[in-house]
Amino acid sequence: MSSKDKRPDTKLVHGGRRGEWLGGMVNVPVARTSTVLFEDVASMQAAYPPRDGTLSYGRNGTPTLWSLAEALTELEPGAAGTRLYPSGAAAVSFALASVVKPGDQLLMVDSVYQPTRTFCDLGLKRYGIATRYYDPRATAAEVEALLSRTTKAIFMESPGSLTFEVQDVPGICAVARKHGVTTLLDNTWATPLFFQALPRGIDLSILACTKYVAGHADVMLGSVTATEAYWQELNRTARLYGQSVGPDDAYLAARGLRTMGVRLRRHEDSAIKIARWLQDQAPVAQVLHPALESCPGHEYWKRDFTGSSGLFAIVLNDVDEAAAARFVENLDLFGIGYSWGGFESLALPVQPKRTASTSPPGPIVRLHIGLEDPDDLMADLDRGLRAIA
Ligand SMILES: Cc1ncc(COP(=O)(O)O)c(C=O)c1O
Predict the structure, then answer these.
(1) What is residue 2's predicted lDDT score, i.e. its pLDDT?
(2) Of all protein residues, whose CA lies closest to atom 8 belonging to ligand 1?
(3) Range(s) of the domain holding residue 367
(4) Do 298 and 212 fall into the same domain?
(5) Are residues 180 and 276 part of one domain?
(6) Do 349 and 326 share a structural domain?
(7) Ligand 1 centroid to 42 CA: how many Å?
């Protein structure tokens, strides 16, 4: 069966499993190497310029890396290839670095993951690239009105970090295409399983594989999947800056990918159940979960997504930041810590930083619903909420 005939869950299991890389094993071997030896000088020279599928030097890739990259590429119909990076943050930076140049302007969604914002404000600025932030609730026409002669790219993150506004990604891509502007999406929350980015018009789709792909809170890894028009420059930029990943990390991410479908659906079911229950709790003013009507942009989620993952936020009523911290500290099953997408539940008071839009009033607590029994998690949240009631 050709890859394009397989459904996404089948691709998760079979993607990247080429006979010549696996040699009959179910999993790809962990290839640890820097040096690759050649039979003669001619075959060494023939291995350059580096290309996937031909061993040349450790940094240029091994079957362990190629297999994961290919499996991720297969999840995005129309993709030409995927590059791997040592973290999600590196994937964001190098996706942008492959697109913008001095003098360009970047339109960046205001609800973006904070380190992405810092990269724009400090890193891109250093190279003479200006960033203009836009409201995550902006319609495609409103984004179009912001385009200027120097706008080179529009970056989206949907739903946004911390406040979960869902964007009109296809609409914004359509106006971008009309004006010859490149589109990038941080698709970490949905993964290609719940939102296929390239078929909806995105040129470069970014994943922090640290989250749901790896899925076990034990790996830092990122990926960028590109269309044909952007693949060569993405690849070239990654090579130029010496980007590669370790084989153990790639192996763990590939292992996580095989079970991502069942894990995500369990995260989804538990998170929706808990989010609905939270809507009825007195100390909760608003639940920011894309699958609920109370979330800005819910209509786009309903139109474009095939599921929702385990990360959302609540806005608390009538309490101060100290009470939000007390709520989180009174939870037993939810850990206090950064990241998400692993098997474990997490809770974090967060303070969104905005310059082009406003975030909901009141303390915000971000929750990651893990793979525990949702009834135990609700009992835990109930105890925490009673501590601030
Ligand atoms: C939406 C989003 N994008 C990117 C990243 C960065 O990923 P990493 O922590 O692997 O650098 C994160 C990390 O929390 C994230 O939440």
Answers:
(1) 81
(2) 88
(3) 261-386
(4) no
(5) no
(6) yes
(7) 43
The Å distance, Cα 208 to ligand 1 centre, comes to 5
Helix, strand or coil for residue 48? coil
Are residues 91 and 37 part of one domain? yes
CATH number for the domain spanning 226: value is 3.40.640.10
Q: Which residues contact 366 (CB under 8 A, 6 or more apart)?
A: 162, 311, 312, 313, 340, 346, 347, 348, 349, 350
The stretches of 280-387 forming alpha helices (DSSP H) are 298-304, 321-329, 374-386
pLDDT tens-digit map of 168-192? 999 999 999 999 999 999 999 999 9
% the chain with pLDDT above 70: 100
Global pTM reads 0.98
Rounded CA separation 14/34 (Å): 28
**If we measure between CA atoms, which residue out of 292, 32, 26 comes closest to residue 159?**
292
Q: How far is the CA of 222 from the centre of ligand 1 (A)?
A: 8
Query: Residues lining ligand 1, CB < 6 A?
Result: 87-89, 92, 113, 157, 161, 186, 188, 208, 210, 220, 222, 339
- What are 302-324's pLDDT values in tens digits? 999 999 999 999 999 988 999 99
Q: List pLDDT tens digits, range 210-238.
A: 999 999 999 999 999 999 999 999 999 99
> Are residue 253 and residue 280 in the same domain, yes or no?
no
pLDDT, position 250:
98
Token look-up 């810092």 returns: 118
What total number of domains does the chain contain? Answer: 2
Test site for ligand 1: of 84, 161, 185, 211, most ligand atoms within 8 A of the Cβ: 211
Same domain (yes/no): 382, 289 = yes
